[in-house]
Amino acid sequence: MELDLRCKGSLSVEHAKLLTSLEPEVRLEYNEYIGELAKINNIKGIEWLNQVTCRNTFISKVHERLCKYSLVELLLAQNEEVTIIKTDSYEDEVILKRICVKANKQILVTSETKAKKFIKIFLVNIIRSLGLITNMWLWSKLIRKGRKFPKKSILLLDNFLFIDSFDEKLKFNDRNYGLLVPELSKLISDLEIWYGPTLIGINSAAKYISVIKKIRRSSEFILLKEDWLKISDYLYAFYFSIIIPLKIKKIPQWRSHDISEIVIIEIEKEIGSNSLVSSILLYLFIKRLSLANVDIKYAIDWHENQTIDRSFNLAMKRFYKNTKVAGYQGYVVPDYYACKDPTVYEFKSGSLPNEIWVVGKAHLKKKININHLLTVKTAPGFRFMDLIKERSTNTTSQYVLVVLPIFLDSCREILQLCIDSIQYNCTEQKVIVKHHPAYTTKDFLSIVQEANNDMFEVTDQSLNSCFSCAKIMISAASSSCLEGALFGIPVVIIGSRNMVTLNPLLGLLPSNSWSVAYNKDEFLKAISKKYVTNYDKEYYIESLQNKWLYDFATSIEK
Question: How far apart are CA 423 and CA 526, in angstroms?
């Protein structure tokens, strides 16, 4: 039997389901492993900005690899007739050979790539980081007209800004906090509300120029890091982006296996990386605000516990010791995304906010079970407020709605299964595709060729507009899965055949309200079955109540 563990390979449905079932246990081991890695290397301060310590399983591939190694261990222990194991990387090949030897199994292990040369990785990182620094420094200096600075004490909102965050009339589309800003502005008079955005998908000079021009012309209060950082800050960030990853010299074993190869490659990917440069610059940005005597009365971190969140919280604790920071988790994603659930060792590192806000009571227990030291509270699901409204459907025009995650490989897998299943069985079925806002439609169609199939209609409409006429929703990984379910739309999660299935509804909603489909037969069965679609929405997504707004406004103005 051939076991194909490559990223673009295909496991049997049985093995794909087994891989997914192993993930929760491996995740707990992974959390402990990263804690041990940090401990034996005495990681502290901004050294926590290294991706390998972050547990961001969508960036670092250590957890995904451990899940696949765990699958191999189990199959070998069950004496399954595995004759060949195919992998992507030389590092995987070396480790899997060790696992097979330890299990006394003679199995051919192959990989498609040779060991990556560090010098090539390093040079690519340096070029990208210098490009980032050039864009950040240059265009903010050349496009100065319209710069704004705080005139009062401020409430600082950490958020994301995309290429399409402004419409043609320069109205800002706040995907993170929704109604919070307009409603809160009515209640506070002594504070200004400012956004402190991280730019997403702004990866060229043209996009940088376009976004900065829109920010300058917009009426929104937006603090650009670039307006506050100095040349010395860029040099500092660049230098320490090279130094910080080198702090890790000792690598612990996992299940008595030497897995140093995959940890080392993660470390090498970070040396001089633009993501590390960005995280350090955010830290220095908060420092510059403090030196300029900008009075931050309260801060809300859009908290995913990524390196940028760590940077934000480490800086606030150092330069704004008396300012309270709330970490708002205004999203619902799969538990596979390990970093979203902070650990005890992260709490002790000082890289977490003062308290964590989740969007409903359904999400409280999970956080506390992982870290009993956390202060966890519920807050309104600002971006989900339209879910509270009753759904009005158009029965004359109902379609299959495909909502795609940010991960391009997952997008391709979902669309291909739709093509294989719907196109040849429901030829008259209308299929609407909604891609992630990190991509423009033009860019998305050029990258994901499957989306150009004639059966798909790619839309730029808002998600809520798409929901109104959807009879079923196809997706994976995204918060949109819960949004669709609470809107009363049956949800089908596409099961992955090459990695762990990303199901944000597992353990959250009853299993009779959604399905997982790994192949054409399961897909066709899933889109035709009956689902429970009535829920206590307030339990999953807390509504925006006047009392909450008043209490919050009062607390930050004290």
Answer: 16
Per the confidence metrics, is the pTM higher than 0.85? yes
Closest CA to 518 of 427, 420, 450, 430: 420
Strand order in the sheet with 431-434: 456-458, 431-434, 399-403, 470-475, 491-494, 514-517
Q: Are 83 and 110 in contact (CB under 8 A)?
A: no
Q: Is the per-residue pLDDT at 241 higher than 90?
A: yes
Q: Worst-scoring range by mean pLDDT, 141-145, 432-436, 530-534?
A: 530-534
Instruction: Report angle CA 347, 155, 554 to the nearest 5 degrees.
Output: 95
Characterize 125-139 residue by residue with b for buried, 16 or more Cβ atoms within 10 angstroms of its Cβ, and e for exposed: bbebbeebbebbbeb
Interatomic CA distance for residues 20 and 338, integer angstroms: 14
Q: What is the pLDDT of residues 67-111, one digit of tens each?
A: 999 999 999 999 999 999 999 999 999 999 999 999 999 999 999
Asked if residues 58 and 333 have their Cβ atoms less than 8 Å apart, the reply is: no
Residue 282 has a pLDDT of 98
Query: β-pairing, 470-475 with 399-403?
Result: parallel
> What is the DSSP annotation of 88-154?
S-HHHHHHHHHHHHHTT---EEEESSPPPPHHHHHHHHHHHHHHHHHHHHHHHHH--TT----SSEE
The answer to whether the beta carbons of residues 129 and 167 sit under 8 Å apart is no
What's the DSSP call for residue 495?
A: P
51: DSSP letter:
G
Which residues, 6+ apart, have CB-to-CB distance to 499 below 8 Å?
A: 7, 19, 64, 67
Question: Mean pLDDT of all residues in the chain?
Answer: 92
Q: In what order do the strands lie in the sheet with 324-329?
A: 191-199, 153-161, 296-302, 324-329, 355-358, 376-378
Q: Position of tokens 């702090």?
A: 247
List the one residue out of 331, 471, 479, 462 whose CA is nearest residue 405: 479
Residue 425 has pLDDT above 70, yes or no: no
* Nearest-angstrom CA–CA distance, 62 and 266: 8
The domains found in the chain, sorted by start residue, are: 142-225+274-384+549-557 (3.40.50.11930), 388-537 (3.40.50.2000)
- 486-505 pLDDT, tens digit each: 888 899 999 999 999 999 99
> Quick one: tokens of 60?
């670092």
